Every structure is written in structure tokens, then in C-alpha cells.
Amino acid sequence: MDEQNQVRVIEVVEYSPSWKEEFIKESKLIQDVMDNEILKIHHIGSTSIPGIFAKPIIDFLVEVKDINNIDMYNDDLSKLGYIAKGEYGIKGRRFFLKGLYHRTHHIHVFETGNSEIERHLNFRDYMIDHPEEANNYGELKKELAIKFRYDIDGYCDGKDAFIKDIDRKAYEWSKSR
């Protein structure tokens, strides 16, 4: 069955050490395409937090010099299988996904200095440093994936309050480090 006739299924799986390897491998391909713009590439999202359940989608946070130059890389990234989605609901971002219904990678591109960079990195680092809360997050995601198996909006809405609480804690934690 081709992807156009499919429904996106929300799947949450056990942590896999291969996610880090996949991040490193794919980072090199992304770097090759946007080399002149990239300042840093970070592994974010649940696949970057060892030991927790996650959707098996590798999230990249790409920090760039000038967000306005990123659209000129859409064609080159499409050759790697990425679909350009523009800002996709977050002002100042460029978002790319690989696979519509069987997603494997997301690229979130932000210009250096954008507050979303710090928020994502604080969340990741806080969760790594607080494994009990990370495990609670993984368990919540497992429950939501069962309840909202074909409803990405319901799944995301179910995580929203937890994420906002962790964002707040992670911000305070980052200031005390």
C-alpha cells in the first residue's frame, strides 16, 4: 500500500541505542547539504533521552546563522527524503520531515539566539539529569499512544501539560546549574 492511502499510526517503543548512531549518521548528511549555514546540530526529543519510551523518530535541532537562507536547501534536502513544511506552526522555524506516515526523522531549524533552542536543550538535559521524570514521561507517552493510536492531535494534547511543567522546571534548573 502506498503512503497516500495510509493513516499515521502513533507508535511508542522501548529506547534503542541505535537512535544515537542514526542521529550521528544522518547529521553528517544534513551537514553536507547545509554546511555553510550550520553552527550546531543537536539531538533532541525523546530519542535523545536514554532509557525512555519514545516514538522512533530522530529529532534534529539545527542551529543556523540565518533562517532566511534555509529555504534554498529544500531541493537538496528532498533528495535525502525530507519534505519541507516551512514554519509549520512555530514562528522563526523551518521544519522538515522524512516520511509522511512512517516518519523516521524531523529537522527543526532555528536561527542562533532563538529561544526555542534553549527550551529544547533544557528539556533534554533536564530529563537526562532527572531519570524518574523521564520515565514518567515515557510511561505517559505509552498510555497516550494506546489511547490515541490514530490521533496525533489527541496524543500531543495529552502530553501538553506534562511538557509545559517540565519546560518550567527545566528552565529553573538550567539557571541554577
Q: Which short descriptors sum up this protein?
A:
Beta Polymerase, domain 2; single chain; five-stranded mixed beta sheet; 177 residues
How many domains make up the 3D coordinates? 1
Radius of gyration: 16 Å
Q: Strand tally, please?
A: 5
Low-pLDDT windows of residues = none
Shape: globular
Category from helices, strands and their pairing? alpha+beta
Could you give the order of the helices and strands? HEEHEEEHHH
In the CATH hierarchy, what is the architecture at level 2?
Answer: 2-Layer Sandwich
How much of the sequence lies in strands comes to 15-25%
Q: Please bin the fraction of helical residues.
A: 40-55%
- Summed up, the helix count is 5
- Give the strand line-up of the largest sheet: 1-2-5-4-3
Calculate the terminal CA-CA distance, rounded to whole Å.
51 Å
* CATH first level: Alpha Beta
